[in-house]
Amino acid sequence: MNVDDHAEDLASDLGVDKAEVKENLQNLVEYSVPLEEAKRSLRRKYGDEGSSASEGPTAADIADIGPDSGNVTVTAKVLTAGTRSIRYQGDDHVIGEGELADETGRISYTAWEEFGLEPGDTVTIGNASVREWEGQPELNFGESSTVTKADDIDVPYEVGGDRGLADLSPGDRGRNVEAKVTEVETRTIDGRDGETEILSGVLGDESARLPFTDWDPHAEIESGASIRAEDVYVREFRGVPSVNVSEFSTVERLDREVAVGGPTRLTVREAVERGGAYDVELVGNVIEVRDGSGLIQRCPQCGRVVQKGQCRQHGEVDAEDDLRVKAILDDGTETVTAVLDRDLTEDVYGGTLEDAREQAREAMDQSVVAETIAEGVVGREFTVRGHLSVDEYGANLETIDFAESDDDPAARAEAFLQEVDA
Ligand SMILES: [Zn+2]
């Protein structure tokens, strides 16, 4: 059944206009309210209270819950409890979210009402519904559910939201991190209440560095500060996990300094299998300089690379010259395209943008610039630092450092021989 069918059923049940019901239902669903919860909410709105409990929930072990389980009753320990605000029908609505576990497994939840859940509580949740969220079943409970304290149970999972940055994944909620603010800037965005200031930057601890956004700027978040942030959630941003601090997060300054580790050294395969990684270091051979490298032209409005003065979005434009390299790096496990900006490209080219223009003018062919770059890098080993994103077109590394590997192959071969001899 689609939203239209549900709206039709609901409208005839409630005896109200279908178009109106459909609009309300669509609004709720667009704001990620599960369909069953949305329907219950509309029944309440139109004064039809009693009919929600008709589906008779059954007691379930968490391991047995699937997306089609319908309504269930579970007894579980609260592992994490996060808070977030969403808006529908013009009203802000505070929801709780996190993870629950029993002896058999764990499951994410969304609480559409305030139940005062705290990590470590054991509760029985009556008449929760199950929906699928990012391929996994998720427990939803709200006004038509009951939450009561139960006898403590032991679960084979960590209780509480404390995590190192390397252990955060998109979709995590109710997490607590202790980190150093290594970069921060104030930005103005067009938010749902008009222009709003937010903070964005980078957090680091010994395990990793990750981008963050603070949607409700906390004064404690200053460049160089070591902080503890409680109740943050994690989203994917350009292929890497991003820490989100909200109005419900608490942030305090730590009286110790959090040490920030260097980039994470990974093989290309490890990095690609993570589906994206922030601040990684890869070591491999450049096997090719791809088309679209060297002297290129960009649209002055959107920055896209243009061919023959034509931008895909803006048509004929007065294109601007730029330099970049797209180098295929191979470490024997997998390949990745390292994308170098103008500064890094000038380094590997050994000249400026103006030098590149002149070389192209003399040759009457701008591809000579890419050829010169290729001569300098293909077949050599580089240590490359940057942020990896993976999409359907492949793996790209937004490069921040690009340096020929220090370890000279002859010295390495010698060390290897000594090892063999020993
Ligand atoms: Zn354009």
Automatic annotation (TrEMBL):
The record, for SUPFAM superfamilies, names: Nucleic acid-binding proteins
Q: Name one GO molecular function term.
A: DNA binding
| Chain spans, region Disordered | 41-67
Q: Per the UniProt entry, what are the Gene Ontology biological process annotations, in alphabetical order?
A: double-strand break repair via homologous recombination; response to ionizing radiation
Name the source's superkingdom.
Archaea
**Keywords of this protein's UniProt record, alphabetized?**
DNA-binding
Q: Which NCBIfam families match?
A: PRK07218.1 (NF005554)
Supply the PANTHER family for this chain: OB FOLD NUCLEIC ACID BINDING PROTEIN-RELATED, REPLICATION FACTOR-A PROTEIN 1
Q: What is this protein called?
A: Replication factor A1
The protein's organism comes out as Halobacterium jilantaiense
Its taxonomic path starts at: Archaea, Methanobacteriati, Methanobacteriota, Stenosarchaea group, Halobacteria
